[in-house]
Amino acid sequence: MSKSFDIPIWKTAPCLQLLLPLVTGIILQWYVQPALQLIILNLVCFTSAYWLFSKLPVAVKFKLHFMQGMYVQLIIISIGMFVTWQKDSRHKNNWYGQYYTNGDYIIASISEPLIEKAKSYKADVFIEQLIRKDSAIKGKGKLLLYFSKDSIPNSLQYGDQILIHKNLQEIKNSGNPGAFNYQRYAAFQQTFHNAYLKPTDWVKLPGKKASQFKQFIYSARAYILSILQKNVGSNKDELGIAEALLIGYTNDLDKDLVQAYSNTGVVHIIAISGMHLGLIYVMLVWLFKRIPGINQSKIVQVILILSCLWLFSLLTGASASVCRAAVMFTFITVGKNIGRNSSIYNSLAASALVMLCYNPYYLWDVGFQLSYLAVVGIVVFQKPIYNWFYIKNKYLDGVWKLAAISLAAQTLTFPICIYYFHQFPNLFLLTNIIAVPLSSVILYATIALIALSHVPYLGFYLGKLVNGLVWLMNQIILKIDDFPYTVWDKIPATIVTTWLLYFVVIGVSCWLLRKSNNWFRFSVFSLLAFAGMHTFNTWQINNQQHLIVYNVPQHRAIDFVKGNNYQFVGDSILLQDGVLQNFHLKPGRIALQLNNRIDSLSMSIGETNFYQFGNKKMLLIDRAISFEKPLNKIEVDYIIISKSPRLYIPQLAEAFNCRQYVFDASNSVWKIDKWQKDCEQLHLQHYSIPMQGAFIAAID
Question: Residue 1 has what pLDDT?
Fold first, then answer.
C-alpha cells in the first residue's frame, strides 16, 4: 500500500504566501514608522536584487533557490509598508493638519447622516477649505463633530456644507487603565480631530456637495427603516433588533438587550457579519435559478448575485466582516462559473489580500479578525467535530451539524474574544442552536417585508410576523441570560497570555487531528508557559498598590488600590452599574483584577479630606477653602483638586509643600488652564487629567 502524503496548505493556497509578508509590512510600518524614502529604497533594492538573481546561471539559481523566495517576501513586505504609508492621510500634501491654526474658519461638507446621541448629534464631515483672514487654503481630511441639541442640526443632511469657527481638539485617549484605544481607532478611520459645536459656532452654507451613489445608499437605508418602523411596531426592543439584523442599524438598540445577547454568545446575530451575507447568497442563488430568462445565463446570474451582495454590503455600512464575506463570495462565485474551484484557504487569503491592500488598517479591526478566525475555525474543525457522533435521525443530525459549526467557530475566536471583551458565554452552544435558525427565518421575513410592503394587507401581516418572531427570540435570549453562570465575566487577559492561549489551542488541535507527539509536546509547553505567565500576573496583582484618578468627564473618580481590593472616592452615580462605570471604570478594574470594593482601605486623618495611603499623603480639595499661612508648610505628596472650587494656587503653595498638583476631569477647562499657568510661574509640578489622561501613581 502506497503511503499518502498531505499537501501543505501553503502549496494549495499561494495567496497565503503573499498575505503573511504583506501583514508583516503593515505591522512594521505602523509601529516603526520608517520614512517614505527608506521604503522606496528598500523596494528598489530588493526588486533589483531579484532581477539580478534571475540573470544568474541555472545551476547557481538551483543551489540558491531559497534566495529567490526571500527576495519576493522582502518585496511584498516593502509593498505592505508603502500601502500603509500612503493610506495615512497625514502624509498627503493637502491634509488640513499641515495648515490649520487656531482661529481659522473651516468649510466642511456633511459626509453621512447625523446620528443622535444622548446630549448631542454626531456627524462625520469632510474638510474642503480653511479660511484665514482674506485667504482660502485648500485642506482635505475627515473631522468628527458633535452638535449640541439646541443647535437644531436635524435640518442638516448628507452633502450639506457648513462654515465652522471653533478651535479643533486633538482626539486623545482617556488614559484610564484597560481603556479602549480610541485615539488609534479614530486614526485608523483617518480622523484626528474633533469639535463640539454650539449654535454660534457654525452656520449652514448654500449648496450641496454629495455623491449621487452615496445619496442613493442613504435614501435606501432611510426607506428600509421607514418600512420597518411602520410595520414592525413601536416597541423598540423588537424594532431595534429587526433594524440591526437586516441592515446593521444600531441606534434603536437597547443596551441591556444587547448585553443579554453578548452574555449568551449570540451578539453576532445583531452585528451584520458573513453569516448574514451567506444567507442572502443562498437565497439569491436559489432565486435566480428559478426566474425565467435569468436562469438560462450564468453570466447574468453572476452579475445579479454579485450586484445584490455588494449593494447589501454597502447598505449595512460595509464593515470589515461584511466586506470580507462579499469579497470571498465574489471569488467563489466567479471561480465556480469559470470552472475553477480553488482551495477555501486560498479564497480566504485572496480576500484578505484585497481588503488589506484597499485598507491596511482593517488588520486591527475586531470584526475583521473575528470574521476570519471564525471562518477558518469552521473550515478546519467543523467536519472533525461533526464526526464525533453518528446520528441516524435527520432532525437531530441537523441540530448536531449546527452545534458542530458553533463549536468550530468558537475554537479559534474565544481567545481573542476574552482579550477584547473579558468574558466567555458559557451557554453559547444552547443559544446558537436556537437563535441562529430563528434569526435566519427573521432575516428572510424582513427581506420579504421590504419587498412586499406595498402589497395591501401582506405588508401588515409580514410586519406582525417579524414582530412576533423577534419578540420570541428576545424572550428566549433574556430567559437564558437569567440562568445562573450564563457568562464567565471579568476575565483578565493580556496580549502575551492571548498568544499563549492560541498556541495551546493550535497545539492541542494539531495533536488530535494529526496524532503527532511533537504537537502534543508543543501544546504542553505552551500550557505551562500560559500557566506560568498567569501565575506571574497574579503575583503582580497581589503586590500592587496604586492611586488612580480616572479621566471621567464632569465627574470625580478615584481608586485607592491594594492587591485585589480598592476603595472608591468619587461621585455616587459611578457606583451604579451603567454606561459611565462600564465605559470608564470597569475595564481598568478588570485589567487590575480589582474584585473587592471596601470602605476602609485608606486611612482618613482628622475631619478634612486628608488621606494617608502607604507612605503617601494626599489632600482632596472639592470646595472653596480659606486658611491662614502656617508657620511651617504642611508636607503632602499630592493635592487633588475636583469640582472647580474657588481657590488660588499661590495661596496653596504658601501653606503646603506639595510634590504634585492633580486637576481631575470634574473641573472646568478654563480653571485648569489658569491653575496650570500659576503652577508654571511657581515652578510647581502639575498634572491635567483632561489633557494628559488618567493619573496613576505607584504607592510604596
Answer: 38
